[in-house]
Amino acid sequence: MDDRDERFFYLGAGPLAAMLLGVALVPLRGFTSASNLTFFFIALTIVVAEFGGRAAAVATALCSALSLDFFLTQPYLSLRMSEKHDLIAFVGLTCCGLIAAALGSQRDDRVSRLRSARAHLELLHSAITELEGVGPIEPQITRILHAARAGLPLASAVVRDDREQVVAATARTHALPVPEQILQPDTLLPADVSARILAAEGLPLPREGGRLALVVGRRQVGWLELWGNGAPANAQARRTLCDVARLVAVRLAAAGPRPESTT
Question: Comparing C-alpha atoms, which of 203, 207, 221 is closest to residue 154?
């Protein structure tokens, strides 16, 4: 079950559980007041918020309040209330449930950030592992570019040496014109754009393409040309791509000058 299916599951299961919980607590309504039974519903809302997200938690909180009113406050099996303290319990449960939903529903964001960080670490690990091997430079860097395109919001990428010769490229990239826009290290933004413009979700990499200088020891050894696929690229994704570019630059510098192309 993926994240979307899981959210839809809890969106239905949470309110249903709130109704069933109200039925299960019916035997206790003669021994204690309804306000003492609200804690069960708050606990349920917190659990749903953790596993189902904000929408499921809000739906559960609202259904919990209705379940408390319908099953556990007089007159029973009615949405009317006869006692003032029952109304206070109803309003209190609604407010506390919504607060619990708001505070406990950050799981989606945490999981998304964790998954993204893990994918970026795996990309860097695969790049380092690839460059540790022996063999021609072109297939090594090509595989790194394909991995970067799979894990980052990239449509295409090209690596050129300091003589503008293509070293490696992703599929269908050779026909693309050389980008004119020069990108800053770490942020991959144009030189005249501040990094503060990057929102939490990030900005897409340029669809028209951009160039990042590959530098080792203050000496430029080539270029990384990249084209975005339209998806947002946050600061972490941009730093990861720049780290990949640094690894590629070190490999280019270690390979030394390439022979002139005869084509």
Answer: 207
